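Appendix B. Extra example for self-study. Work through it before the problem class; the solution is given directly after the inputs so you can check yourself.
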Amino acid sequence: MKNVDSTQDKRRDILEAAEKVFRANGFTAAKMDEIAELAGVAKGTLYLYFDSKQDLFVSLLEDRIWEYVATLTKKLEEVCSVQGFVQTLAKVRGQLFVKNRWLLESLSHSLPDFSKEFRMRIWNLRKGLEEPTIEALTRLLPPDYPIAPLQAAAMVNGALDYTVGTLILHGQPVVLEDVARALEYILLPGLSQAPGEDYSGQ
Amino acid sequence: MKNVDSTQDKRRDILEAAEKVFRANGFTAAKMDEIAELAGVAKGTLYLYFDSKQDLFVSLLEDRIWEYVATLTKKLEEVCSVQGFVQTLAKVRGQLFVKNRWLLESLSHSLPDFSKEFRMRIWNLRKGLEEPTIEALTRLLPPDYPIAPLQAAAMVNGALDYTVGTLILHGQPVVLEDVARALEYILLPGLSQAPGEDYSGQ
Amino acid sequence: MKNVDSTQDKRRDILEAAEKVFRANGFTAAKMDEIAELAGVAKGTLYLYFDSKQDLFVSLLEDRIWEYVATLTKKLEEVCSVQGFVQTLAKVRGQLFVKNRWLLESLSHSLPDFSKEFRMRIWNLRKGLEEPTIEALTRLLPPDYPIAPLQAAAMVNGALDYTVGTLILHGQPVVLEDVARALEYILLPGLSQAPGEDYSGQ
Amino acid sequence: MKNVDSTQDKRRDILEAAEKVFRANGFTAAKMDEIAELAGVAKGTLYLYFDSKQDLFVSLLEDRIWEYVATLTKKLEEVCSVQGFVQTLAKVRGQLFVKNRWLLESLSHSLPDFSKEFRMRIWNLRKGLEEPTIEALTRLLPPDYPIAPLQAAAMVNGALDYTVGTLILHGQPVVLEDVARALEYILLPGLSQAPGEDYSGQ
DNA sequence: AATGAATGAGCATTCATTCAT
DNA sequence: TATGAATGAATGCTCATTCAT
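Solution. Structure tokens for the complete assembly:
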């Protein structure tokens, strides 16, 4: 009992320390020494829980992403309109982005020297990250909607992430409600129109 | 004169070599030795033209981005409708993304250990990259459009980049015409509607 | 009683595991973890029976060498001619060499970082290994034989070991009877001749 | 000119430092830092001249062994009797052994973790080391001598090395003339006898 | 301006040993 | 006695940068 708990505790401590250090420095510049010190364990202990720096990094991504995916999936299952979808997405994914921008950006970056196994794990994460959005859109968009859910999801997610990223870049406060409103204003008409409709404003 | 030309030639040779090596390996894994060899100069010569590896990297980004910004600015100046804007953007920025994905991703990634000066130069690039889009939208959107051009631009650019990135990730062919069409279908209604209009599909 | 037996059993298990691992990897590359696992005990238990990796290694050598020395001593005591000596030696020591080449080579190799105490123990082993040969030759050679038994023994042992080693190196099968015959052919005349005899072939 | 010389000088300096350090500590315990310091160069410089610690080690063996092989080959070519052969061998190989005992022992030891390439290079050295002896014996022994030169050479070399090693082990002075005499006394009769001869002293 | 040999700080990983249980 | 989780010192190798020529 105690052993299992203490083992899980230590693993969690290490992941938390790793998150801070990776976030602050990026993968390459992060130092295992610093992670160990921050986690309050000896350097060698890191290797009892993770095979390598790469494994630690990807395990961290997995831990955080799967947790987020589960949350988002649950929230989106309760949604029954495209509008609700956009609002929920903006809130949940936007929050993730604000808190873990580096994490999402790490995913879309090919890390140096990563072995095939790790590239595969990252690839799975990237795909998994889109799953809830794709699923929700598949359910909510009209069956004859002319854009594939994969692409529609990419556009919504891209618009959301990039907007939040831009606000951060420009030092402006990120108010997710405002972002949600803008997202609705720009995307909802296109997502809501019937396939045959003339969408051009002319 | 001759000296200036030869100097410029060598600088260009180095930038071209650097582009290939950085693209193939990313910043950290790229080696100055390889760049020098590919450029046909001695290792020490690199330091006659650039202060450091970081300087070479950022100079390369600047060189390529400003060139692209000039092109896009010119193309967008000829555009006189939101629809034309979306089509032109998809073509020009989409092309850049397909060819220089690593370049754009480098911009949005916090490079490890980069000094403040370099972070600033990269920040300028990121802002400059959005300029033409913002400018065009400022001109083309109705004056009372409720979304700030900065955010609108972010959404269009994000939707475009993320869609192309997703296609690449899934190993699907990137046909920019199709991407442009999907972009139009989803974004144009929202970008074209009058401010007071009821956009919700209900 | 029971305790003693069980203790002896465990000690023997560890030595057997250690033999396999040391033989396969050599001293430095052998890992205590692997030895413990193969012996079916916990890593810490090794240190209840042996002070250190070095102690385990040298204890193993001692265990095996003294056992071999006892065997050879007994066999050589029954021998009553130089020819019988050569034959018996080729058979017994040759066998040891074929089966435990690494063991003999370990003895003649200065192990890295071994402390003085351990070097001494190894030195004793090396000397002990020659004892039976020296004793037998002292008994069998004519009292006025001009070569000291120590040197004569060294020559016989060296010729034997090196020949077997060479055969192994060249991937040739080691037939100890053949080796014994060659050894006899080359060494016996010299070992058998009376001191004053003219041994040169001229 | 100067560059080539200075390059050769530095390579030689490194080899000399490596010899001292490897001799004193063995391969595994030897530290590249110490070699660099002793050679008076920076650690990185070692890697300009040798690919790795293993490469440095094997290159050193090669350098020393080939030099010795050339010397021995030349000396043995002038020899025209088995007796002369034994004397010359004792002098030249004995000298090598006294000075570079660790070197010869390194050869007959399977170094830990050595890659196939390096094992091959060491194997070639071991074979090359026997070449001059085999060649000389092939020339000097009667054509119908019943022992293959390879085995005869192994016996002579083994007897010689082991004798010298034993003297060193026992702390006795190594007088090569005495060793040569003992070697002659014991080996010459066997090496000189005609094939049909009865060699047993009985 | 150009070279390229030399530098040396920096770092992930291993593994014998310990000690609380 | 026995365990095995935790330790942390130890080390080969890389590569951006310098500088004598």
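Self-check: Chain A has a mean pLDDT of 89. If your reasoning did not lead you there, revisit section 3.
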